[in-house]
Amino acid sequence: MWQGSGRELADLVMSPRDKPLVIVSRVPGSGELHLDTARIEEEVGDWADVVLVRNGTPTRELQRHLPENWQVFGNAARVYPRPVDGLAPGPGRYFMARDPREVERRTRELIDEVLALPGPAAAEAGPAQPVAPARVEKAGTVKGFFAEGACAWVELDDGGMAQIAQPDVVPGVRLDWLLSPKQEVQGLFDAERHTLDIAGSVLRPRLLEAYTWGQVVLCLVLTASVDRAVLSPLPGEEIEVLRADVSSNELDGVDSLLAPGQVVAARLVLEAGRRRLRLVDVDDDDPVAPAPVLVRGGLPWLVEGRDLLPPAGEESDAGEEAAVRAPEAAAVPAQGKGTPPAGAAMTGAPVPPPAPAQAADASGGPALPGPAGGPLPPDAAAAGNPASDAKARGGAALTEALLKVAELKARVERAEAAAVVLQDAAARAGQAEAELARERAEAARLRMENLRISEQRNKAQKLARKGAKSAEARPARELFSTGEEALRHEVYLAWVERIPALEKADRPLRQYGVGAGFAKAYFAQPPDIRHKAAKALVDLLTAEPGQAVPRQVHEWRTGRGGHNPPHTRDDGAVGFRMYVEENTPGARRLHFWKLPDGGIELHDVGVHDKDLA
């Protein structure tokens, strides 16, 4: 039984193997439908590698990391031929026994398919293969992208052209998300394939090299279902999130808030030794860590607001257009007199000329009679009447001319019949071309509609996620007799949510005082602002004395100029102001006093230009 992960099995499928690979999936507890793995290994063991994998998480991971329709799951098996010229061909047919009586037959069919494939590379006989030309180092400039970002064109410094293929860089990530037009690149140029391999410029940061715990990071949504989703903060890093990580409303479906291809912000935390991503406690004004660059000199691989949307257009296929293009109408003669009706059959048999016996002589009279009442041959008639030699010769010439006229007439009729057939074919081809144009226009309209709906869905789900974060079952103020008690409760809950479990011992809430008007000002704010203010208080109250707070904090001055002194109290406390929101009209600020002994006393929360003097 396969002991690795589904991704490792997918890597094995796509690797430059020397043998074909057979993957047999099994559902535990359904032995009567299991293909005979022992027999398969016995029959093809020298010809192919056989892997037995348990249906479930490994097969789901295998499906996510293989090209579309390459998967295998359930009680089934599939054969993956060995790569040719470094490229993995597609897998064979799907072998599955739907009834116990089919197991033996499906097993035999699978074995036959394996043995029909080219076997181990070392076992193949034949002439020695020519040595591939050595690849040379070349540099160039990215000129553009095609095939929906799967390939990039590069103009080499020596004037040649090359292309970069997505699988050679970061598999599964669009090249136009990694490289920018006019970016200079360098790699190994393959003159035979006209490709530039820039693997030497690919960066592969680990998760904690790119981010730190507690940061808000960008993630790509890979899958989404009713109760969970899989997010990727880095290519190859997959973290499962549950409903509680996305919404505070247990009735929300995860797939109503997230969809594959979306780029979302989530907080990276460590809980009980496990990596987790939480979207529910991320606010709009939380600073988002930039995604790492995966190709030296390139772009961050994820950008906020740039989702993986369906294609909006279709690249033209000149070969397809040429195959259906109708003949030029100008090359088809118009229907004329004597032309058969449309649809008449065209034959290659010539029209027979008039019989010589029916041809008139040169004088316009009837032909001379011959023996038995028939006309005489021209030479016989001439011999019997020497005076008519000239007429006889003229009659022969006339007969020859009539034969030629008849032949020409037959040729004209055949040409006119061919013209009708061509006109009919041209009309049908024109109709087909018009129908194809209509189908292409409809396909383009549907693609644009799909793109529009996807964009609307992403916007709607983004708004829904905001609503899911700010949902409040019952205001805490109603649960306590004093505003200060309710405030301390909300701050404690924010600390519970914001500080990872393993860090709580090292980041406890410091003791703090609450000024006379602070609780009233706090509960006068809308729920989403209180939520942000509570998080700001957690950042302030968990920082060690003298340690920088991860928000903008500065002295609360008596005037607007930087030369104005800060507010002070008679007991020596100094006023400070901290950001609750940024880049928002009417952004809130939190004011507090820093006491001489290093303690904190909360003073007020409100809009940034509020006069508190």
UniProtKB/TrEMBL annotation:
Superkingdom, natural source: Bacteria
Residue spans of biased composition, Pro residues class: 368-378
Give UniProt keywords alphabetically. Coiled coil
Region annotated Disordered, chain positions: 308-391
Q: Where is the composition biased (Low complexity)?
A: 324-349, 357-366, 379-389
- Positions in coiled-coil regions: 398-466
Q: Quote the protein name from its UniProt record.
A: S1 motif domain-containing protein
Kindly list the organism's lineage.
Bacteria, Bacillati, Actinomycetota, Actinomycetes, Micrococcales
